[in-house]
Amino acid sequence: MAALPLDAIVSFLDRRLRVEEFSDNSNNGLQVRNSGTVRRICIGVDACQDFFVEAAQRDADLLITHHGLSWGDSLKRITGLNYRRLKFLLEHDMALYACHLPLDAHPEVGNNAQICRALGLIELNPFGSSLGPPVGFSGMLPEPVQYAELKNSIRAVLNNTVATMDFGRERVRSVAVVSGAGASEIGEAAEKGIDVFISGEPRLTAYHQAREYGINAIFGGHYATEVFGVQAVGTLLNDEFGIGTEFIDMGIVY
């Protein structure tokens, strides 16, 4: 396969993912450069050493993750894990591109939009604005279903065990989704009359809110709710550039 310019791929991703539209603690976009060309891309959720090693074994030139290495001024000192991870990337000439909130919020390839579509939700609307622009979506099932049936569907879509807080209706239709660490949005879901709130990581405060608001909440794991966006980005790049992309699943259940 012919090599593609790294800059062309980065420019395409910056535009399509609208990285400049979000104020984010993640330094979204290209975080580590390589020598300038790309033949193979590996995608994953987290910029961690295990992912880097797996990608190097597949001869990747570019890595794309949801959670990158650079957050705020986190790379102010290149020591400890920062040193080990950057050293590995540089030694293997692998670039790293990360996209956090823009990939949660994207209406086509974003984590939350992808989960909504996998569940068959219709009438999608932006949802989850307590920390700024909405990053999640709410929608409706085509017809009301038993809550127990929806829980089974969510387990199947996420391919993971789920923690549930079952304090709402037994027959449900409206659903809100905020992937990852979105438990803080449960109050907005309750105030908007949502039947079921879905996120990744549960919190103790979320339990009390769910109980007192009388809402159903389902938490399927931070990782499991955020595999969708990067996989969709891989498909997008393959369609646009015809370049090989491979999703590396680290199998994390948290």
Give your account of this protein's structure:
This protein is of the alpha/beta class. It folds into 2 domains: 4-100 and 227-247, NIF3 (NGG1p interacting factor 3)-like (Udp-n-acetylmuramoylalanyl-d-glutamate--2,6- Diaminopimelate Ligase, Chain: A, domain 1, 3-Layer(aba) Sandwich), CATH 3.40.1390.30; 105-225, NIF3 (NGG1p interacting factor 3)-like (Udp-n-acetylmuramoylalanyl-d-glutamate--2,6- Diaminopimelate Ligase, Chain: A, domain 1, 3-Layer(aba) Sandwich). It is 35% helix and 26% strand. The protein has helices at 6-17, 49-57, 80-91, 101-105, 111-118, 147-158, 186-191, 204-213, 228-241, and strands at residues 4-5, 29-32, 37-38, 40-46, 62-67, 95-98, 122-127, 136-146, 163-166, 171-178, 196-199, 216-219, 244-247. The strands form 3 sheets. Strands 7-8-10-11-12-9 form a 6-stranded mixed sheet. A 5-stranded mixed sheet has the order 2-6-5-4-13, with helices on both faces. Helix 8 (204-213) links the parallel strand 11 (196-199) and strand 12 (216-219). Helix 5 crosses helix 9. The longest helix has 14 residues, at 228-241. The two termini are 36 Å apart.
